């Protein structure tokens, strides 16, 4: 996808009345625009880095396209922008419709026995097709209106030519376990069952 320049005046117009979904010490990082689409900003963190040749935004786009090729539901990239600020790019995309597992798991009447088999199947598919998603957690897995599971926030991802090794599968499960602990979900999430299904 071609990267086109987005002048500051056009950026200001695009983000007018947008909702800021995520920010850091530098400012807003993710906007929900009035039309429901998402604008995600990428900053090059170092003056000299591999991002000079392949910006983080391009990796984000490539990852979304790779997932789509593998038949895994994900966001749909619409445009790729170069911003006026040095080292900054942005991706405009249509979000994957649905609710995250993080949100659903906190709703009254939710039971993991209804969702765990589907979650296991999704993660197994990733591992078998060589997708190493370091940010795999409940907040990045969406249940769509069709009741399928897909992925969002796909920047932190690698694609291997072969299925993931046992070591990488274990590391992926450890990342997931740390998220469960950080979000204080140990009491409700069947982590032992997930680990057994993926590592057993």
Please give the structural blueprint.
Elements: E1 3-6, H1 8-14, E2 19-24, E3 27-32, E4 38-43, H2 56-69, E5 76-83, E6 88-94, E7 99-100, H3 101-104, H4 116-128, E8 131-133, E9 141-143, E10 149-151, E11 157-159, H5 166-182, H6 191-199
Parallel strand pairs: 1-5
Antiparallel strand pairs: 2-3, 3-4, 4-6, 5-6, 7-9, 8-11, 9-10
Helix pairs in contact: 5-6
Question: How would you summarize this macromolecular structure in one to three sentences?
Answer:
InterPro entries: Kinase-like_dom_sf (IPR011009). This is Toluene tolerance protein. This protein has 200 residues and is α+β, with helices and mostly antiparallel strands.
Describe this structure in words.
This protein is α+β, with helices and mostly antiparallel strands and 200 residues long. It has 2 domains: 92 residues, Phosphorylase Kinase, domain 1, CATH 3.30.200.20; 101 residues, Transferase(Phosphotransferase), domain 1. It contains 6 helices and 11 strands. The strands form 3 sheets. It has a 6-stranded mixed β-sheet. Helix 5 packs antiparallel against helix 6. The mean pLDDT is 92.
Features:
six-stranded mixed sheet, alpha+beta, Kinase-like_dom_sf, Phosphorylase Kinase, domain 1, Toluene tolerance protein, about 200 residues, about 25% strand, three-stranded antiparallel sheet, 2 domains, Transferase(Phosphotransferase), domain 1
Overall radius of gyration: 18 Å
- How many distinct domains? 2
Order of helices and strands: EHEEEHEEEHHEEEEHH
CATH C-level name of the largest domain: Mainly Alpha
* Helical run tally: 6
CATH architecture of the largest domain: Orthogonal Bundle
Cα(first) to Cα(last) distance is: 41 Å
Strand content: 25-35%
- What percentage of residues falls in helices of 4 or more residues? 25-40%
The coarse silhouette is globular
CATH topology of the largest domain: Transferase(Phosphotransferase), domain 1
The total beta strand count reads 11
**Main sheet?**
6 strands, mixed
Extract low-pLDDT stretches.
none
**Mean of all residue-level pLDDT scores:** 92
Identify the CATH homologous superfamily of the largest domain: Transferase(Phosphotransferase) domain 1
Instruction: Provide the spatial order of strands within the biggest beta sheet.
Output: 1-5-6-4-3-2
Structural class: alpha+beta
InterPro entries: Kinase-like_dom_sf (IPR011009)
Protein name: Toluene tolerance protein
Organism: Pseudomonas alkylphenolica
